[in-house]
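Exercise 7. Predict the joint structure of the components listed below.
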Amino acid sequence: MTRGLLMVPLALSVAVLISALLVVRTKHENRALVNEIEQLRGERERIEMEWAQLQLEEATLAHNARVDRIAREQLGMTEPRDYVIVHARP
Amino acid sequence: MTALRNLTAEPVAAWRRYLVLGAMGLGAIIVLGRAFQLQVLEREFLLKEGNKRHIRTVMIPAHRGAILDRRGEPLALSAPVETIWAVPSALLESPRHVVALAQLLGRRPTELQKFLQARIDRKFVYVSDPLSPSEAKRVLALKAPGVFSEPAYARYYPAGEITGQLVGFTGRDGDGLEGVEKAQEAALAGQQGRRQVIRDRTGRVVEDNLDTLETQAGEDVQLTIDLRIQYLAYRELKAAVAEHKARGGLVVVADSATGEVLAVAAQPGFNPNNQGERRSKGTRLSAIVDSFEPGSTVKPLVVAQALETGLYQASSLIDTTPGTYKVGALTVRDVHPQGLVNLSTMLSKSSNVGAAKIGMTLGAESLWNGYQRFGFGEPVYTGFPGEVGPVLRHFSEWGQIATATASYGYGFSLNAMHLVRAYAALANDGLMPQLKLVKSGAPLPPQRAISANTARTVRHMLEQVVLPGGTATRAAIPGYGVAGKTGTVRKIAEGGGYDGGRHQSLFIGMVPAERPRLVGLVMIDEPGADAYYGGLVAAPVFARVMQGAARQLQLSPDGSRAPDLAPPNASRTVALPIVPTAARPQT
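Solution:
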């Protein structure tokens, strides 16, 4: 009886100890996860930056004035005003 | 006895007990009171002070939305940049780094040295323009003392001068100053977010589940502009302005069925990516912010009103001999006297006398009513900042002369969008659409300006303008029917009256003539003296732009199919049925 009575506080104090350790671990995990989300946010920001720059680069390369110039000067293309019949070389 | 006496406790005076209890009670009250004070009364303050010492607030800038054309091509984009700043006193202590920094930033070392010396008392001085993140990293890699970078977003305009005036630009702190950037500021800007974090000693965030305010990223704004047509319009306009040594010009292309503006270009232009050009005259989108007298281009609208009132029929004849017409002190003149003409010839030869005679027959009130119905009395409501309103005096203020001049387009002023809207009504069988620059929401229902029958009759007459014998044969487009009208407007001279040497050459028309889908306006401002007629200067630009636009939009020559354009509003179905009358055009 007395022995049983002693076990209760003992068990409780062990439980307290365990939960205290768990709190420490959870806190640690929490910080680790916060750190990770922070890194991922940084990563997302970096990727968004890259996306914006790629869009810009694409728009610069596909700029109508540039395409126009290359088509006319390098590829020798013209815009026909009307139907033009060109004789194909044999 | 003594031992006995020792054993018996002497009764203690009761006050001692109370004293001790009282002292303990007081102690307890003090402790509890202090606890109450700290935990309850001063809790807020202490918590705030505590947080102040270890919680940091991180601001999360909102990404500004992009501006896109109707096909999703970017016209304005935010990209990250970093601006290098320095603490002059710290940097000057290491001359070696000043030299290295100057070289990386492309400045002369002595000049940078002087620049810093002059600002030695300051704690914060920008030493570079916004740089790309990779360039900034190279600068920071120098590890120069007192040199830091400030991240920010910079605005880039990939289309450059082609959409310069329309898209506008933002200021250094990122808010829209001109154009669509200004008009759509609320949608584009978004809302800056905030996050509270606890950092550890090395600066890593260890806890962030505190107070947060979500960042609201700016929305993208999609315009109704088609960049391909915009480019074409801008290129042809620029070439024409250069060829005729003109002061400027503008081109507007719109979808007549939905009122969506597909291109709006103006010259002189500017490149918004170049800070230095942002104060030039080229920043004005003259198609919307400037007004002009429309001249002969309103004659078809007068004819439409004449047909609507029933005072004239398509076959009515007007005697324009001898090419002059006196109204009070005013003599209306035709360049080439035409004699007895019908309405169609009156338009294709652009006879001022004929138009003035129609106007005088209609009378001031009826003429004014006609212009009102074509929307000349109200703004266009494009939503563009600085849109200029029309100036059309009330008919009760018109005398004989004002009535006569108003019937060939003088004495009132409009912006280019007014004319485009009125011609869209002619093109769209009398239903006048609301012009739109931003693609959004439910389409606004069009307004009926004139009957479908009148619109078709006038359109048939306008086809004659482009055919051989008309004033604008050079507006013809192979494969498509074109209906349009030229205008050669004398400009008002500095000291009043009209200047015979300064003109505005106009052409406004629609394609395909059978069932128009596109309305285009070209105006060349003050072309050189060798050619200034609308049919010679503006019409060829119109033909080239509209031919390209029709091709790009895969418009079928009869106008029945336009896969690249939005289907016309459902409300088009309420259009009045076509009533067969004697005035019906012979096809």
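Discussion. Residues 29 and 35 of chain B are 10 Å apart (CA to CA).
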